[in-house]
Amino acid sequence: MGTTEQLVNSCSSLTYEDLSPEVIDRVKYHALDFLGVAARGSLTESAKAVYDLIEDMGLNPQGGVIIGTDMRAPHHYAALANGTSAHSLELDDVNNEASAHPGVAIFPAAFASAELAGCGGKRFIEGVILGYEVMIRLGKALNPAHHYARGFHPTGTCGAFGAAVAASKILSLDKEQMLNALGIVGSQASGSMEFLTSGAWTKRIHPGWAAHNGIIAALLAKRGFKGPSTIIEGRFGFLHSYSDGSDLNKVLADFGAPFEIMKTSIKPHACCRYKQGPIDGILKIMKENNLKAQEIKEAVLGILKTAFPIIVEPRELKYNPKTVVDAQFSMPFGAAVAILHGKAALDEYTEENIHSPEVRDMMGRVSCVQDPELDKAFPRQWPASVEVVTKDGRRFSTRIEYPKGDPENPLTWEELLAKFHDLASAIYPEERRQRIISRVRALEQEENIRDFCRLVAGKNYLP
Fold it and tell me: Please, is 435 exposed, middle or buried when counting C-beta atoms within 10 Å of its C-beta (0-12, 13-18, 19+)?
């Protein structure tokens, strides 16, 4: 029996009763995070462009909810829209070892499939767990550095497989059908890192396409369409085609022990996860030593090798961002706004700050260096080092072992609730937000996810 088939057997056999209370709670934790970023992301220009396309192609009043809007669309298009909006803010969850954003690929596929199937909360939770599991395991097996070296974005490529499994589980596909769904979606796994060259929006659509393609693959498989049963391990399969340094053993090793969702991080800062450890270090030094921005002469940041071509190079672009996307992937920009504003949240990633002379001046005081010591624990751990030098010659340094939001340094439920309220308040009034929270925290009790999804629609939802 091949690796793909063994993986499908593990996914097919898992039931809600196999899940511990801690794992079930973690699904709810990540679900609320996803809903917050998707709702606020619905206001972005990139999301609205997708909505316009879907509207032109034809809405469906019986279709899936597009979160934060009054639109309903065919379920695969709802997944496309929700994945795109949720990834637009750079505030969605991330798994370090896979270097991928699972929530924005898995939840859109799971919600849309659950609406299509009319399934309950327990089946929905099963699908989410397995979607995270497959997506992250494939990301780890590829070896993120090698996958990036080929120009691929793991969220898009691995996300398609995770979305296909989530949809297959929720839509009650049998083993053979789920195996075919994986084989089908392997021909749809895509996502290019070329967006970094010009600050394009294409990264934002990667998880939306993954969710969309995962649903299409599952629906085709359910109707008898055949896919290769060796799509992961085969001679022309995913691991061989998308990486020069893959490790097949990581696909199946210790399945569910623990589940990969338990090792997935939540972002506190509105930018690439590779920037967040250095930002944490800057904020720590500034706060602990009561430093003011005008006192700072220089900030030297130790950055992971894999992160350099994403957030540090090319220098001419990273020190001269022209768009919000550029800024989200510019370490000098993130460091500068952290020093100047004491945070690097959504309100800092604006056109105004991109063109601010004050921000530009502070960016010029930031330097980034590679530190081989940091890479020893990568990709399991994403550490960072920071040294801040003041104009009067004082030096302050720190090393961040686990950025805020990592499972080893998590956001508490209270901090997550604050993040949700901050993001979702632009869409939902207080009473509605509280109802969403209550329903998420009792997700397993939902008899039909369609009823829940009405609650996360726009202003004109039906209560």
Answer: middle
Do residue 320 and residue 349 come from a single domain?
A: yes
User: Is 243 in the same domain as 304?
Assistant: no
pLDDT tens digits along 424-445: 999 999 999 999 999 999 999 9
Query: Is the distance from CB of 279 to CB of 338 less than 8 angstroms?
Result: yes
Task: Give CA angle at 345 (419, 404), nearest 5°.
Answer: 65
Are 43 and 122 contained in the same domain? Answer: yes
In a domain, 460, yes or no: no
Q: Which helix (H) or strand (E) holds 298?
A: strand 296-303
Mean pLDDT of 64-77: 97
Between CA 177 and CA 311 the distance in angstroms is 41
pLDDT for residue 345 is more than 90: yes
Mean pLDDT over 122-127 rounds to 98
Residue 351 domain-assigned?
yes
CATH of the domain at 317: 3.30.1330.120
What pLDDT, on the 0 to 100 scale, is given for residue 88?
A: 97
Amino acid identity of 317?
L
CATH code of the domain covering residue 226: 1.10.4100.10
Query: Residue 205, SS3?
Result: helix
Strands 296-303 and 366-370: parallel
pLDDT band of 460, cuts 50, 70, 90 = low
Reported residue count of the chain is: 463
Same domain, 260 and 327: no
What is the per-residue pLDDT across 243-298, written as a single tens digit (0 to 9) for each? Answer: 999 999 999 999 999 999 999 999 999 999 999 999 999 999 999 999 999 999 99
Residue numbers of the domain that contains 247: 3-267+438-455
**Interaxial angle between packed helices 103-117 and 21-41, expressed in degrees from 0 to 180 and rounded to the nearest 10:** 100
pTM above 0.90, yes or no: yes
Q: Domain check: are 75 and 102 in the same one? A: yes
Q: Can you give the pLDDT at residue 459?
A: 72
Averaged pLDDT for residues 97-125:
98
Instruction: Looking at the structure, tell me whether residues 254 and 313 fall in a common domain.
Output: no
The answer for residues whose C-beta is within 8 angstroms of residue 151's C-beta and 6 or more apart is: 192, 193, 194
Q: Are strands 64-65 and 72-73 parallel, antiparallel or unpaired?
A: antiparallel
- 321-360 in b/e burial notation, b at 16+ Cβ within 10 A? beebbbbbbbbbbbbbbbbbeeebbbebbeeebbebeebb
Count of domains observed in the chain:
2
451 and 375 both lie in a single domain:
no
